[in-house]
Amino acid sequence: MGDNDRDTHQIDEAVADLLQKKGTLEMVVEIGEHGSQRHTDLREELLLSSSTIQQRLKDGKKQGLWEQLLEERGDIAAKVYRLTPLGNVIYDIAVDLELNQLYRSKRGIIRAIDNRERRVIVDSSPSDVEWLSEIKMEEHNLHSVQKFLQQFVDK
Predict the structure, then answer these.
(1) Which InterPro entries does the protein's record reference (predicted)?
(2) 9: which residues sit within 8 A by CB, 6+ positions away?
(3) What does the DSSP assignment read for 51-94?
(4) Any idea where the domains of the chain sit in the sequence?
């Protein structure tokens, strides 16, 4: 997209305010990366609450960052969000600044930290405590998983 296209789609104060809210710019980038995204797609990828995503989708639609439409996905029509020309201008600037790559790296680092924190809790906890079973064990090593499961064997 050339500079002339960018000039015709300048943001106003309301859009600038929205872009500064947690997750909005990341949602522009995520939708732009995939062409269209459902609420569910965004919730699975982004480290935002469902309510935050829902509010940002509503606000972004109101401010003209994306549009909501129905898209055929298999045998069903899914409600998806696709960037508008204004959203595409912002997305292009973000990509020029490699923000898409930084967001992916950030999410990977945060997920790695979360998994390591859970591992510390599991590895430092007695194996017979009931609350241990509530800790998510998605990406722990075999030792941690065995310790987690041991509470069920000992009973």
Answers:
(1) WH-like_DNA-bd_sf, WH_DNA-bd_sf
(2) 85, 86, 89
(3) HHHHHHHHHHHHTTSEEEEEEEETTEEEEEEEE-HHHHHHHHHH
(4) 3-97, 113-155
Q: Give helix 99-123 / helix 142-153 axis angle, nearest 10°.
A: 40
In the structure encoding, which two tokens stand for residue 80, read together? 């998806």
**Per CATH, domain 3-97 is 1.10.10.10:** yes
Helix (H, G, I), strand (E, B) or coil at 5: helix
To which residue do tokens 């829902």 refer? Answer: 54
Residue 105 · residue 111 · CB < 8 Å: no
Q: How far apart are CA 78 and CA 22, in angstroms?
A: 25
For 148, the enclosing helix (H) or strand (E) is helix 142-153
Residue with tokens 């710019």: 25
Q: What distance, in Å, lies between the first and last C-alpha atoms of the chain?
A: 64
